[in-house]
Amino acid sequence: MARARLRDLGLRTGQLPPGPLNAITDVAGVRVGHATVVHDAPAVARTGVTAIWPAGGDIWTNAVTAGFHSFNGNGEMTGTIWLEEQGLLATPVCITNTHSVGVVRDAVIAYAVRERVPRPWLLPVVAETYDGWLSEADRFPVMTAHAFAALDGATGGAVAEGCVGGGTGMICHEFKGGIGTASRVAATGAGTWTVGALVQANYGSRDLLRVDGVPVGREIGRDVVPSHRDGPAGGGSIIVVLATDAPLVPIQCQRLARRATVGLAWVGGIGANGSGDIFLAFSTGNRVPLDAPVSQVRMIGPDQMTTLFEAAAEATEEAIVNALTAAETTTGRSGRTVHALPLDRLQDVMRRYRRIE
Fold first, then answer.
1. CA-CA to 135 of 20 to 30 Å: which in 3, 189, 247, 252?
2. Region 137-160: what's the mean pLDDT?
3. Is 283 a catalytic residue?
4. Model's pTM, two decimal places?
């Protein structure tokens, strides 16, 4: 059965409506690009880089408000100390594998130099999850050119999902994982806003996997689809990037980022000790010129945040499932194979639980 997004399978999660693309790019100005690195020589590579532009090319000097949350900190997202201090994001965001964070971080700076960005220094935001089960991560296959390709190739519109970019070698709930995205439209008393999520999913135990509350991981157990592991699993990591056009100040972005935890939990993530679960949220509803002595910013009222929280949780949940339904069975280093979630079996299970529309 051809790989498909969750809603293409006749399934849905949550209550709020998605945006037109059901993707993080439903937030105007957000662009996503991937560079996928797949080869078997001189080393086995199943890896890559995913780049997210929060706004246009002026992001370097015209920042967006932002905040982050670490649910479990066995992972890395560079630039977060300054992000927490200042509350502003003024670079693109990249996601890659654990051993390539340094080269991608440096590549973002080199990219800014190439573009003659008028900034004396940069602290880019680059996050990671580990793909060493399928890819020879210690051979460092990701290079500066790959980060440049992801940044240069970023576009609006539909976002490629599954085994692409930084998600190429990732594993989720003992099925093939990777990149996923989704969005929600939130009607509040302050206006109607969009919240989009993009995830790099590389975490979780099979037994805990749920789709719309259905225990899919137990219904499609290791006796049905083999796991890549012989024993219990549950480590790994997930990066979640949330974007919204709602006008939020930095502390509100931080609060929004925390709600990715709810969406992760709905799918079956528990923040295992070996997991790096790190979430970033930014708002395009405020643009802050870095050289302005005074900037005017807006914020929606605290009581209006609840629907945005729901949107963030729902978008995160569906983005993770989209990563699973899009990803394909992959064989990598030492002949290891990670199987994709079988979509026909998923539909059968959801039909038995009366979730098929």
1. 3
2. 98
3. no
4. 0.98
